[in-house]
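This part of the workshop introduces the protein records we will be handling. An example says more than a description, so a record of this kind follows:
>
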Amino acid sequence: MAIASRKGLFFSIIAIIMSALFIVLFSGLTHVPLDKDVTANQFAAFRVNGLLEVFDDFLESNIERSSYLTLETFVAYYEA
């Protein structure tokens, strides 16, 4: 299947570039420690710590939102 128009060609090139960029950014290969004396275990601990901080923020916001929706549903149920 050939790309017939310039818009299609432009869109395809942008999509390929964005896909490659996301793969490079989110793969673990791009993280190089600035301190050359950092051991592999310390570096892995830093990565896990960052992941857990993000997960903690995500979990806290989702628990808050789900509890609010649950209470709102209970109020709507008892008012009906």
